[in-house]
Amino acid sequence: MRVLIVDDEAPARERLAQLISDLGEHQVVGGARNGEEAVALAERHRPDVVLMDIRMPGMDGLAAASKIGMQEAPPAVIFVTAFGEHALEAFDARGADYLVKPVRLARLQQALQRAQQLNRAQLDALQRVEADAHSGDQTHLLCRRRGNLELIPLQQVYYLQAEHKYVTVRHADGEDLIEDSLRTLEERFPAYFVRVHRNALVALDRLTGLEKDMDGRRYAILRGLEERLEVSRRHVADLRRLLRERAGRG
Questions:
Q1: Left (φ > 0), alpha (ψ -120 to 50) or beta: where does 47 sit?
Q2: What is the CA radius of gyration of the chain?
Q3: Which of 69, 109, 117, 168 is 20 to 30 Å apart from 200, CA to CA?
């Protein structure tokens, strides 16, 4: 793999470069001293993986990784730092792995192998999503699970619920977070989902009815799921009409 090394200390860059040379399977394409250089060199050299220090003057490694992640076909990022307390931030930033200095050869090899697997998974997932998009018939949602990009078949989805800046996808195998807004998903998949609340969409083929509790609140009944989703008053009439029309067609 093509590797970009980012660290504000020259000895640290040189040591990582030597370790990569010792592995004999990868090529160092550049070294950056700060986040700004890292973003520029990632754009120029198109590495497969970036070894990224976190604490650096100016733009730190987390900010640089975020910007690199917005590039076309972004590389995997492995965070490398002397400060173990940054581990949670690194994984929140979707790093492929996290190495603590001094980096051991075996651990570096393990991280690079993981990054290589991640890149293959990303490529496969993105190619399938792109094929869906070109055919005009998208059949999956794309999420990131433990650093890997994964596809969720729409047929397995029960509902989508917005919370803060993420959307939770509740599906047959559990839950995942995606970054698309609820409005975007509603517009992209009008044949799959219907809005039941300002913060929730349910799968049309899972919706089987409405129920009312003792306080007058209404909930959507979803096939295959014991959990109930509250329906806001403004959407009750539309959902009743939809259910009547479906019953009439049946």
A1: beta
A2: 23
A3: 69
Task: Record the pTM.
Answer: 0.52
What spatial distance separates the first Cα and last Cα of the chain, rounded to whole Å? 56
Domain boundaries, the chain: 2-123, 140-249
Superfamily of domain 140-249: LytTr DNA-binding domain (2.40.50.1020)
Q: What is the pLDDT of residues 175-224, one digit of tens each?
A: 998 878 899 899 989 999 999 999 999 999 999 999 999 999 999 999 99
Domain with residues 2-123, CATH architecture = 3-Layer(aba) Sandwich (3.40)
Average pLDDT over residues 92-115: 84
For residue 67, the tally of other CB atoms under 10 A from its CB is: 17
Q: From start to end of 146-245, where are the E strands? A: 148-153, 157-163, 166-171, 174-178, 193-197, 200-203, 207-212, 218-222, 225-231
